[in-house]
């Protein structure tokens, strides 16, 4: 097999002396190999140095991390976290006391890799976020193309789109997320909760140990999406069997939900590998896509005959039909929006519910305060109604505070589309701003964790304090877990309606306690559990809790 040799090495090899005799040839071979190795080392070192210097110039010599690999590059993710490799978790690990930013005396710093990855500017400042995502500079920045492409698997959609395309999608998709949908979410959440209690066998038990509460919250969120997002209904444990013996839509939806990140972000060649996990995922995609295409046609007809359901998919089609041909989305765009919005919401809600239960379990005083609030609003016997949502603000506060401390979407990326500038506010206590150039192609990383733990915006940011949200009708721009500005998450009220209903029912019925290992203290449990697992999204570690049935009438 022929091997291409880089020109610089070919030139050096051509100048090597020739000769005869085994000894001479042996010495020559040894010298030649050594020279090649030295040359390769020099070339690599020079290349790394050039890359490093260019990176420094690209960020205007801004202070920051200097590392072989970008934390978000494949080598950076796969290599062990160490002093020389910050790893994917470096922003999470640096949240305590905002230590990562104090190190550079700024809320914005650079990351310059000299082997793999592009230079980055990382920020935990809300004013910088406004500039690059929502302010007058927003047209100077766009989502990196490779990230938008991953989100286009199901079709063009609101999350991946920018500019006029985004506005068209927002015009159609927005009306589908309305009070009618949120009321349906509330009703279905209560129904699924009752089904969960019955099918898990909790009704006959006073104490229930749940080794991994995420298994419950992800299953719960899946059923809510199935019913309220797609109008599908299946039981807690047993999905129906397809008549032809193949995969049911419910099974397909479950597989896609559980493996959504693999579906969106694995390279195409990896998906072709002959593994059962990937074959099932491929079959699930085929089943779901066929179903969705059929459903678009059927639901369009039901909208015309005023026989439409109240799930998000149907409401989206209804809103689309009202637009006429000028602004209407095509079928693939409708499908793309349903999947991206609902699957993104599923993961956020499931992770945040699990973390909410963890925080309540290890904060009994706060849990008691929330129980008292629930009893004041709905009492022991009345079923919580959708109309109670606004009054259950302390329950909502638990969800919001948990989402602040464990933001599922913990990173935002923007790339400069042209040479531009941004203004960096100086550290707290210092007046003024510094204007820095941002060359075309520079990637900006918004550190949502750093923003939510920034003492500029929150007092005691490392403390679980739902009270900071009590009575707050609007969280304000400081709260970025649902994004901010025009691109604020459309599924926000969908998620909070589900969460408030679920937490109200569970907290009223059961006292939450940490499920401790032998000899473990509550403090050790917190150290073990209240840490992050992160890849594409961020969540709390596997959470073991104990549920103890409450006696009605005894708070």
UniProtKB/TrEMBL annotation:
Pfam families named among the record's database cross-references: p450
Keyword vocabulary terms for this entry: Heme, Iron, Membrane, Metal-binding, Monooxygenase, Oxidoreductase, Transmembrane, Transmembrane helix
Transmembrane recorded as keyword: yes
Keyword Glycoprotein: no
InterPro entries: Cyt_P450, Cyt_P450_CS, Cyt_P450_E_grp-I, Cyt_P450_sf, Cytochrome_P450_monoxygenase
Binding site for heme: 489
GO molecular function term, any single one: oxidoreductase activity, acting on paired donors, with incorporation or reduction of molecular oxygen
Cofactor(s) recorded in Swiss-Prot or TrEMBL: heme
GO CC terms of this entry: membrane
Pathway: Secondary metabolite biosynthesis; terpenoid biosynthesis
Location(s), subcellular: Membrane
Family to which the UniProt record says this protein belongs: Belongs to the cytochrome P450 family.
Protein name: Cytochrome P450
Source organism (scientific name): Ephemerocybe angulata
């Amino acid at each position: 097999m022929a091997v291409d040799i880089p020109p610089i090495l070919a030139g050096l090899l051509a100048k090597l002396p020739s000769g005869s005799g085994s000894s001479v040839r042996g010495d020559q071979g040894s010298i030649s190999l050594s020279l090649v190795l030295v040359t390769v080392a020099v070339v690599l070192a020079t290349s790394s140095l050039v890359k490093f210097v260019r990176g420094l110039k690209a960020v205007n010599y801004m202070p920051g991390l200097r590392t072989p690999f970008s934390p978000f590059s494949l080598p950076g993710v796969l290599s062990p976290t160490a002093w020389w490799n910050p790893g994917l978790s470096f922003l999470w690990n640096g949240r305590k006391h905002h230590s990562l930013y104090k190190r550079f005396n700024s809320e914005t710093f650079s990351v310059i890799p000299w082997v793999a990855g592009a230079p980055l500017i990382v920020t935990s400042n809300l004013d910088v976020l406004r500039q690059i995502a929502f302010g007058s500079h927003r047209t100077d920045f766009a989502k990196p193309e490779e990230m938008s492409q991953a989100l286009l698997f199901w079709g063009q959609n609101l999350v991946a789109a920018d500019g006029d395309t985004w506005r068209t999608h927002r015009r159609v998709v927005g009306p589908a997320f309305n009070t009618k949908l949120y009321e349906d979410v509330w009703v279905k959440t209560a129904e699924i909760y009752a089904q969960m209690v019955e099918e898990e066998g909790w009704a006959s038990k006073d104490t229930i140990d749940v080794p991994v509460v995420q298994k419950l919250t992800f299953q719960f969120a899946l059923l809510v999406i199935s019913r309220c997002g797609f109008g599908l209904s299946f039981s807690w444990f047993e999905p129906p069997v397809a008549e032809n013996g193949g995969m049911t839509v419910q099974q397909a939806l479950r597989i896609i939900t559980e493996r959504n990140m693999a579906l969106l972000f694995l390279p195409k060649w990896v998906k072709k590998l002959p593994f059962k996990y990937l074959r099932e995922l491929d079959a699930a995609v085929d089943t779901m896509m066929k179903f969705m295409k059929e459903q678009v046609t059927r639901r369009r007809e039901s909208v015309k005959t005023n026989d439409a359901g109240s799930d998000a998919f149907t409401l989206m089609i209804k809103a689309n039909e009202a637009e006429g041909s000028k602004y209407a989305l095509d079928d693939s765009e409708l499908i793309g929006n349903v999947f991206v919005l609902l699957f993104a919401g599923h993961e956020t809600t499931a992770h945040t519910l699990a973390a909410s239960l963890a925080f309540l379990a290890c904060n009994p005083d706060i849990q008691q305060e929330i129980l008292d609030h629930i009893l004041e609003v709905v009492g022991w016997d009345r079923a919580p109604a959708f109309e109670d949502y606004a009054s259950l603000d302390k329950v909502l506060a638990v969800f919001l505070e948990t989402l602040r401390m464990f933001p599922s979407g913990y990173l935002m990326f923007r790339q400069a589309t042209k040479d531009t500038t941004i203004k960096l506010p100086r550290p707290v206590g210092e007046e003024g701003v510094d204007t820095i150039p941002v060359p075309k192609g520079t990637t900006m990383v918004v550190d949502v964790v750093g923003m939510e733990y920034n003492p500029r915006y929150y007092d005691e940011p490392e403390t679980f304090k739902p009270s900071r949200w009590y009575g707050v009708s609007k969280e304000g721009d400081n709260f970025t877990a649902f994004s901010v500005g025009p691109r604020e998450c459309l599924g926000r009220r969908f998620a909070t309606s589900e969460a408030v209903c679920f937490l109200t029912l569970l907290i009223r019925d059961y006292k939450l306690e940490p499920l401790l290992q032998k000899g473990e203290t509550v403090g050790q449990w917190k150290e073990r559990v209240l840490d992050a697992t992160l890849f594409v999204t961020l969540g709390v570690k596997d959470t073991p809790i104990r549920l103890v049935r409450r006696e009605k009438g005894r708070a």
